[in-house]
Write a structure and sequence with these properties.
By secondary structure, the chain is of the alpha/beta class. The chain contains 20 helices and 20 strands.
Length: 549
């Protein structure tokens, strides 16, 4: 018995922690740590305070250079979400971190696990307010990091990164930050013990029983799916739940990932990010189960008219549970939570809801309609292609004409900030090559991070960028019409030549002048299997993000 217990304890120790052997320097200890955590792809844009970390860069580690820090963060964001493991980002002091803060905010809202580091001036200079000094470095990225640290001593740097990794990976995932003085890298380090991050946890049985009983009693149930389902690889479980219960399935408002096959007969559509139309869609149901999404994310104000007693929430995010105005919430990761709920559901005789009405055929005339672009991409893309979207003016067209059918098949920004999709598409392609990645990009969005094309070219990624050029900030124009705002400046973007810009960055590019040439251009771009941009001038009056029907 004692021998078995001893063996069990040894097994636990071997699986629960990883020990990094003593190294001669902080730099070597950190590199060994990154190897042990399978973080051998590093994203960055270096400066002088990072050069000691990059000294004698090892052949078994890949450095992905972004030409601007915000792009480095979103490349890492896409890579982390696609791999399910934290990604390592190396930025330049306060200025570099400042440049990246917008996309760090997006990574936080995306719940993307990142370990972000930035250089700091030499410890001997910190009291003298030197050049390239980051004052209050740990406060700079807050509140959009889960944990932030500038180690008290150089020898503590590897342990700080180990803790940052663990914090980033614990649910809900998110970015962490470590500030590292330039003269720390040569200092002798200590051994590092890494606590493995718990990735899944199950539901409270009593709370789950309450949810299951309400579900079993209901006559007209609905399920709302959110991004945590896709992040937890729980598509099969939620499909089984929907089919067993004959529940209609809606996607949560402005969801950053797709979590249910959008061509499934039980898929009802996409909930709007506005209280009145969302209430109108859900008041038909006598029970609503929200899975892996907030209750609810709104973009515009209004009066919500929902009976909260009929809404239950299952989430892996304690803060989301605390915010939710619902009677019963269950804390669990999606695979374990949904699997446990399935065991408590009784067989049903409910009739299945009527399937979603198909969209009409898009028009084939000029100027090209965004609906035609989406339908053409849907027809020609490989079934397992990944869609990364930042064309908010045409999101309804995407929902109607480009169904996502496979897990890990869709990514967009959870924050609403622009500049995410193109570099994220680069990171996703780095993680999943040779799987085809298609980035749907607006002209306004493109100019936040167009330089990410250069990185895609350097790594010869299977990335096709379909750029919707409507000559301005189309979503903002639609929003201004809804708000009855007139003569607002700053909405037009004349004179941008995206083909010339792309070619200047080494990327193949073509402009599609007519609707009749669209299919040929997209087919040829997909066949190339290397970075290609297809610019499509589209009808500027078809922006539809804020349509609330």
């Amino acid at each position: 018995m004692r021998e078995e217990r001893h063996r069990a304890l040894n097994d636990f120790a071997n699986t629960a922690m990883i020990t990094v052997e003593r190294a001669t320097s902080v730099r070597q200890a950190v590199r060994n740590l990154l190897r042990s955590l399978k973080m051998t792809t590093v994203f960055g844009n270096p400066g002088s305070t990072e050069l000691p970390f990059l000294h004698e860069w090892p052949a078994d580690m890949r450095y992905v250079l972004a030409l601007q820090e915000a792009s480095a963060i979103s490349m890492a964001d896409g890579y982390a979400q696609a791999t399910g493991n934290a990604a390592f980002v190396n930025l330049h002091s306060a200025a570099g971190l400042g440049n990246g803060l917008g996309n760090l905010f997006t990574a936080y809202r995306n719940q993307a696990p990142l370990v972000v580091t930035a250089g700091q001036q030499a410890r001997s200079l910190l009291l003298k307010h030197p050049y390239l000094f980051a004052e209050s470095a740990t406060e700079f990225p807050k509140p959009y990091v889960k944990w932030s640290c500038e180690p008290a001593t150089a020898a503590d740097v590897p342990a700080a990164i180990a803790r940052a990794y663990c914090a980033a990976m614990m649910k809900p995932c998110g970015p962490t930050f470590v500030s590292i003085p330039i003269d720390d890298w040569e200092v002798e380090s200590k051994p590092v013990v890494i606590r493995s991050a718990p990735r899944e946890f199950g539901p409270d049985p009593e709370r789950l029983r309450i949810v299951a009983e309400a579900f079993n009693r209901s006559q007209r149930p609905a399920i709302i799916v959110g991004p945590s389902i896709d992040a937890d690889r729980a598509w099969d479980e939620v499909v089984a739940l929907a089919e067993r219960s004959s529940a209609a399935v809606w996607e949560s408002p402005v969801s950053s990932r797709a979590s249910f096959p959008e061509d499934h007969p039980l898929f009802a559509g996409f909930l709007p990010a506005a209280p009145e139309p969302l209430s109108a869609k859900l008041n038909h149901y006598d029970f609503v189960l929200v899975l892996g999404a907030p209750v609810f994310t709104y973009h515009v104000a209004g009066e919500e008219s929902l009976d909260s007693s009929g809404i239950c929430l299952m989430t892996d995010d304690m803060d989301a549970a605390a915010r939710a105005p619902v009677r019963t919430s269950v804390l669990a990761t999606m695979r374990l939570g949904i699997s446990a709920l399935l065991e408590l559901l009784s067989s049903t005789r409910r009739s299945r809801p009527a399937p979603r009405s198909p969209a009409p055929e898009p028009r084939l005339d000029d100027p090209t309609a965004a609906e035609l672009v989406m339908a053409t991409v849907a027809k020609l893309m490989p079934r397992d292609a990944v869609i990364v979207e930042e064309a908010p003016a045409h999101r309804t067209a995407m929902h109607n004409y480009l169904p996502i059918r496979t897990p890990g098949g869709f990514y967009t920004t959870a924050s609403g900030g622009l500049g995410y999709a193109l570099p994220a598409a680069v990171g996703i392609a780095l993680a999943q090559s040779p799987r085809q990645v298609i980035c749907l990009l607006g002209d306004g969005s493109a100019m936040y991070s167009i330089q990410a094309l250069w990185t895609a070219v350097q790594h010869n990624l299977p990335l096709t960028v379909v750029l919707f050029n409507n000559g301005g900030y189309g979503a903002l124009k639609a929003f201004s019409r809804m708000m009855h705002t007139t003569n607002a400046p700053g909405l037009e973007l004349p004179g941008l030549d995206f083909v010339a810009i792309a070619k200047g960055l080494g990327c193949a590019a073509v402009r599609v002048e007519t609707a009749n040439g669209l299919a040929t251009a997209i087919r040829e771009a997909l066949a190339i299997k290397s970075p290609t941009l297809v610019e499509v001038p589209v009808d500027a009056e078809t922006a539809d993000l804020y349509r609330q029907d």
